[in-house]
């Protein structure tokens, strides 16, 4: 029997479906990873943060960690790599809710929805300034699965899309592709600067003051990747000095965002509490990916979905 | 000389461009339509509401009214029709800002942006319920230029679109097309019921209690057409009794919306003060259509853009 421990919490109906589909697998649904060292766990399904180096030391039978999240930056990747443990994630499942969130914020700002909401509270019937998205330009940092979906949708609205990646390769959803070192030269053209980059050694603190100085005064900066893309004080400075028009942040240098952060009260900043990937369909989709990979695992096939290269971090 | 009176207010640079492009036309830019009867006006460019039956009586030379608006329901259409006066509007220019506004509201509700905005004010870092647009179904009343653009964009998000028109003909942007008398049967399938219908004898009070009873409890009703599609009290009743989840209204039975309307304070209603068509590019686009038609007028060609059939009202 293959022993699978799920600390990823799922509902009864999902548990039963797993047991029905895989009668030869021993599923252990647990609230906690404590005691896992005595369970001869071969496969661990987790949100990620419970797998510390110490826990990993005890799991001598572990061969595969399925992370039910997109970010693996909090995982003991080095230890997993050394032990040759397979690591997979569910990165693909975020693309729909995240792209919808990003488009929601862009359109909402353009069409003045926050102002409409405020006016309604005061029963004010008044026209306001309102822009069109059509014809604008977006620079998308990280044109992978999520960024590509953002690009595809923006293109439907008539937006010119520029993808920025380490390779500079051609990406779906982009009219143009540039390299990381071409960001500064490209920023003066961008009405939207949207990051969906993961946290890696190359993306950490990738943006600094000089980048915000190059942005349009009318630009909107959106960080939906990881909070260590840019120092909070750099964004605060740019917003306070109106170097850019607005920032929409779903991720932060420190999460939850501390209550003394100036970002909360800046009228040109939208603070979203890391919710852009949320979806009522999340668990269902994560389990679909897990089940596909588990089929392959049991039959000895290769070609797993969403394999993480532990040395690269994504 | 052809005498053109513009009560449609435009900036100096637009005035000069018109005069340069049409040196043989006599342009009169006026704040008011008063005194127009002494000007031998052949062509009138107006937002519409200043052309009353009485004013029309005095304009004996009038041959063409260009309405710089989409709605012509406040125009003296019968009188214009009797006199054989050409009536054109600018309906096409609204499709981009209006479709963007409609998508903005849909995405904003799905991705919980109003809650994010409220939480930020109170510095609350908390996850909330959030849905996906993908896979839902939209019923679009009025699948013309604007409705078709809404349908095209919704389809990009993976939404199933159903167009509803008097003809029931196949329309762009729709997966399916139905007739007005099929609305009730179709409502139980719709997650979004979106009207962009003009005000005509056929659309006036088209929806009533029975329609709202057929809608899903989770449905969102959106009126971006005209306020006489449904009685305000019908919508208020449906919202107060949670027959539907939310209403987004850009048009109202009475505009401006009276301050004692219950719609202002309903938490499941968004009151938008008839701003969905606003755009910084409005005047420019309206003049483009006017200039194309004026070229034809002067050269004696036919095939004018956006001709209104005065007996039909659109």
TrEMBL record, chains A, B:
Keyword annotations of the record: NAD, Oxidoreductase
Claim: Coiled coil is one of the keywords in the record: no
Pfam families in UniProt: 2-Hacid_dh, 2-Hacid_dh_C
Key word Ion transport present: no
D-isomer specific 2-hydroxyacid dehydrogenase NAD-binding domain location: 103-276
Residue stretches making up the D-isomer specific 2-hydroxyacid dehydrogenase catalytic domain: 6-302
Xref: PANTHER family: 2-HACID_DH_C DOMAIN-CONTAINING PROTEIN (PTHR43333), D-ISOMER SPECIFIC 2-HYDROXYACID DEHYDROGENASE NAD-BINDING DOMAIN-CONTAINING PROTEIN (PTHR43333:SF1)
Family named by the database record: Belongs to the D-isomer specific 2-hydroxyacid dehydrogenase family.
Name of the protein in its database record: D-2-hydroxyacid dehydrogenase
Taxonomic source organism: Sporosarcina aquimarina
